[in-house]
Amino acid sequence: MGASILVVDDEAVVREFIVATLLPLGHHLVTASDGESALEAALASPPDLVISDVMMPGMDGWSLVRRVRTHPRLAFVPFIFLSALSSVDDILKGFRLGADDYLPKPFRSDALIERVTDALRRRESIESRTRGLLEPRDDGAPPALRGSLSEVGLSSLLVLLEIEKKSGTLELHGEFDERLRLDLRRGRVFQAHVDRGPPLTGAEVIYYLLGWPRGTFVFHAGDAPIEDKIGLSTTGLLMEAARRADEGGGGERDLFDLVDDDAE
After folding, report:
1. Within 10 A of 127 (CB to CB), how many other CB atoms are there?
2. Omega before residue 142 within 30° of 0, cis
3. CATH superfamily name and code, 4-130
4. In terms of CB atoms within 10 Å, which end of the chain has fewer, N or C?
5. Which pLDDT value is given to residue 49?
6. Phi, psi for residue 52 in degrees, rounded to 5
7. What global pTM score does this model have?
């Protein structure tokens, strides 16, 4: 059985080309001409994959992927960008915001098919493996979930931990030997710590981490602190991070920005 795929592009000819390419493979295609209608369609009936343009009127592709990643039902939905914006900076931005792949326009039908097939297979494997690692071990020891942020973004990981109502500590290691920790209680982040890295506290730690394109994580299930020093649900945190990113705020700042600010 094919996948349900949401195609978003303001150019009808592009939408028609994608539908003509993927429909013969047995996939179910739903189309939208802008980000607002695409998000509405995705929330009404979560797709198995989103393929989106970047430059669109109203809500563009950048904003769309941010919004998609704030909703628990869409956390693990693969997202592929198709765009004429093909610079290294544009591609990195796409991945940083939560996209799974980026295919520059113009593109060939065989390249699109390959990317779609890979995205669906990879995401299904990642979600299955991630959920499996959260199950109790045969020896009775608490589960330890570990992986790479390049495979499972922090937003998806936090949503999964909230859905599963897991308590414990999520340790994150960054590219510059940064070491940060998030303490969770029943799926909610209650406290955040910087063991090595920029001088941030509270929710600012989480907004900073959501801007990491790479890094590794380890989740240790166990006791969690009682005092809630964050005061926001996972959805609330992700929505605030998206708002900041839309305004060019802390959601996309990097370590060097923070070091410069501290030096001042």
Report:
1. 17
2. no
3. Response regulator (3.40.50.2300)
4. C
5. 94
6. -135, 145
7. 0.63
- The per-residue pLDDT for range 19-69, each reduced to its tens digit, is 999 999 999 999 999 999 999 999 999 999 999 999 898 898 988 988 888
Secondary structure, 3-state, the chain: CCCEEEEECCCHHHHHHHHHHHHHHCCEEEEECCHHHHHHHHHHCCCCEEEECCCCCCCCHHHHHHHHCCCHHHCCCCEEEEECCCCHHHHHHHHHHCCCEEEECCCCHHHHHHHHHHHHHHHHHHHHHHHHHCCCCCCCCCCEEEEECCCCCHHHHHHHHHHCCCCEEEEEECCCCCEEEEEEECCEEEEEEEEECCCCCCHHHHHHHCCCCCCEEEEEECCCCCCCCCCCCHHHHHHHHHHHHHCCCHHHCCHHHHHHHHHC
Q: Is the pLDDT of residue 149 over 80?
A: yes
Radius of gyration over every alpha carbon of the chain, rounded to an integer in angstroms = 19
User: What distance, in Å, lies between the first and last C-alpha atoms of the chain?
Assistant: 58
Token look-up 């809500």 returns: 59
Residue ranges covered by each domain of the chain: 4-130, 138-263
**Distance separating alpha carbons of residues 74 and 32, to the nearest angstrom:** 17
